[in-house]
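Hi R.,

As promised on Friday, here is the backbone we talked about, encoded as structure tokens. Could you run it through your design pipeline when you get a chance and send me back a sequence?
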């Protein structure tokens, strides 16, 4: 077998409308709207520069099939650039761009192969007459698919490196609809499959779930909100003649999204807080190279400063001043907001002794925390919260520690509300 290389990308979401963003200057808005297109162009450029043999696109290529002709046309142009260099593209459709009962809504050049949603077959990736790998994939037929795709992959040709492309949910994945669910064991059990590389899509964070066989989520190509923070891009995979693999992540994103957390418990003035924010922004700028940043500052912790931060003008004034300092920078930096979650310091022990409502609440909270039976009871009351997709840990098997930390948070929240 001769060596070869390919790019694995998923969740391109070309044409994302950024509908969650409000109040933004036109220049920044255009920059954001163009970001999924530019990330796609960068991926095409990478494929040409590295002269990869083929590309795998594992679903959600488009944010929406119906409403974005520009995204579809732009995609087609990129595919034609690859066609001119003999680079093949294998595609499966995801929940955002389901296959439906036909094919893509526009004609793609003949270097593209879209796996259908029913009865797909193994394909052979060839270049210049050489058989490089066997590739299999299943498309979503409509938006919501409950099938376990992993169990639908037939045995492939025994003499080739085998790649299976699925848009699916492996195990528990926070913040994603559990479409096409399967377990990691469904993919890695050697008695079931001999697949060498599972090229996955759907989960928006890059993850390598297994190294033998490789089970890989590349994540989104371009971050689109603070839920998609940090570097985003593709995996470049090299397979040698002996079938050993080398997997490298390459970022494609611009701008990059980041939340900056500042703990104000050891900060005593707004001036000092501004200096801290500024230092963190500069460090982030240096860390991301020649790409833009979209930032949000979260102020947390207990401090005397909390009162002045909650006064009407403080945060807007800080935001104005920081934005002035950031305006005109190249690459662009946009500070979306500053969120003040800080609270005033409080002497819990002293407040517990007071004969008022606050004292009663604190004593009640204390009583729950020290009694294992009460904690079990609280766990029952909170079960709908722990099962919620939005709960940060998304842990249906919540532990007593999870219950305690939720109670602790609730205690401080209640205290703040009652003191107000
Ligand atoms: Mn997606």
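Update: got your reply. Pasting your designed sequence below so it's all in one thread:
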């Amino acid at each position: 077998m001769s060596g070869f290389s390919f790019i694995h990308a998923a969740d391109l979401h070309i044409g994302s409308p950024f509908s969650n963003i409000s109040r933004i200057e036109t220049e920044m808005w255009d920059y954001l709207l163009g970001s999924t297109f530019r990330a796609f162009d960068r991926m095409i450029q990478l494929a040409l520069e590295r002269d990869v043999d083929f590309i795998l696109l594992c679903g959600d290529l488009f944010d929406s099939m119906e409403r974005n002709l520009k995204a579809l046309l732009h995609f087609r142009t990129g595919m034609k650039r690859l066609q001119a260099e003999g680079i093949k593209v294998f595609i499966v459709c995801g929940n955002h761009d389901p296959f439906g009962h036909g094919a893509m809504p526009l004609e793609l050049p003949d270097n593209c192969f879209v796996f259908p949603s029913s009865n797909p077959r193994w394909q052979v990736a060839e270049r210049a007459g050489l058989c490089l790998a066997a590739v299999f994939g299943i498309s979503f037929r409509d938006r919501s698919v409950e099938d376990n795709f992993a169990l639908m992959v037939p045995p492939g040709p025994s003499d080739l490196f085998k790649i299976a492309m699925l848009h699916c949910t492996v195990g528990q994945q926070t913040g994603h609809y559990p479409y096409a669910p399967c377990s990691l064991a469904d993919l890695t059990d050697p008695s079931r499959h001999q697949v060498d590389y599972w090229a996955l899509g759907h989960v928006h964070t890059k993850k390598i779930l297994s190294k033998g066989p490789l089970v890989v989520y590349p994540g989104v190509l371009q971050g689109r909100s603070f839920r998609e923070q940090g570097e985003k891009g593709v995996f470049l995979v090299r397979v040698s003649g002996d079938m050993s693999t080398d997997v490298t992540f390459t970022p494609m994103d611009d701008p990059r999204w980041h939340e900056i957390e500042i703990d104000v418990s050891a900060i005593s003035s707004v001036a000092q807080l501004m200096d801290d924010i500024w230092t963190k922004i500069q460090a982030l700028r240096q860390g991301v190279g020649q790409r833009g940043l979209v930032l949000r500052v979260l102020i947390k912790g207990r401090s005397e400063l909390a009162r002045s931060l909650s006064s009407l003008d403080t945060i807007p004034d800080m935001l104005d001043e920081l934005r002035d300092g950031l305006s005109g920078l190249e690459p662009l930096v946009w500070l979306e907001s500053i969120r003040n979650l800080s609270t005033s310091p409080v002497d819990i022990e002293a407040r517990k002794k007071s004969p008022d409502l606050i004292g009663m609440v604190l004593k009640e909270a204390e009583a729950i925390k020290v009694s294992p039976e009460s904690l079990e009871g609280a766990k029952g009351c909170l079960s709908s919260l722990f099962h919620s997709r939005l709960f940060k840990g998304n842990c249906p098997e919540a532990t007593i520690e999870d219950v305690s930390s939720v109670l602790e948070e609730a205690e401080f929240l209640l205290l703040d509300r009652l003191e107000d």
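One thing I noticed while checking it: The two ends are 72 Å apart (CA to CA).

Thanks again,
M.
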